[in-house]
Amino acid sequence: MHTYIPPERFFPYLTWPQVKDLQNKSNTLIIQPIGAIEQHGPHLPLVVDAAIATAVVGQALAQLDKSVLAYALPPLCYGKSNEHSRFPGTITLSAQTLIAVLSEMAESLYQAGFRKLVLVNGHGGQPQVLEIVARDLRQRWSDFMVFPLFVWGAPHCAAEVVGAAEYAQGIHAGDVETSVILKLLPDQVDMSQAVREFPVDFPAGSLLSLEGQLPTAWMMDDLSVSGVVGDATVASAAKGDAILASLAAGWAEVFQEIYDFVGLSPQSD
């Protein structure tokens, strides 16, 4: 059941007395991988975001020094994916449901004595939801540190591997995600169905954008017929291997820094 997570770092394998007796529980990292079950074009499985988030967390934990107390929860595979809802197979939660699930999970951990929760999200459609959850939890419990993080936010080499243009524009099921899944789940990728598709963007010089500082709301079928935004045809497992290795190393650094983090405090003159 631990899939990509090292079994000794898999929280559900603990017994309740072991959880009760954990040393330094308030500084122990509890890590929640979060993904989605949503379309990723005609060539990739629905599980892409959940698989990437879980694999990166697992590989990072395998690199983490054993003195760092950290456990991963099972991945939350469902997310807020309504931008993909017009493609068959997508399963989406509402923002309200996702907020409730994460908040109640976090409350259980807090009541058990944990004070550091790391949300590692692999789906680009829900970072804002996680940020709302983290802020509300912080308001409720001032000693609870909650980190709403995006799996692609840690240091990594994806832009160098696939090129800056593809990394910036290939936002869904393109070279990056296809290469990583070719490494993780090669039997679930059908490269004979891989496509290259990019949306018609705003005119040159426009202040508006699909994402970034001045975005507009969109559904995936506004952008793509295939469900792909990017060039999946040039993906390879070798690229995926390099990207995964760099992501895992980056996340090992992030987990170490969170473990060492003692919190913020105001500075007075």
Automatic annotation (TrEMBL):
Name the coiled-coil region(s).
none
Instruction: Give GO terms: molecular function aspect only.
Output: hydrolase activity, acting on carbon-nitrogen (but not peptide) bonds, in linear amides; metal ion binding
Kindly give the Pfam families that the UniProt entry links to this protein.
Creatininase
One of the GO BP terms on file = riboflavin biosynthetic process
| Key word rRNA-binding present | no
* InterPro entries associated with the record: Creatininase-like_sf (IPR024087), Creatininase/forma_Hydrolase (IPR003785)
Cofactor dependence is on:
Zn(2+)
Keywords annotated in UniProt = Hydrolase, Metal-binding, Zinc
Q: Which family does it belong to?
A: Belongs to the creatininase superfamily.
Per its record, how is this protein called by name? Answer: Creatinine amidohydrolase
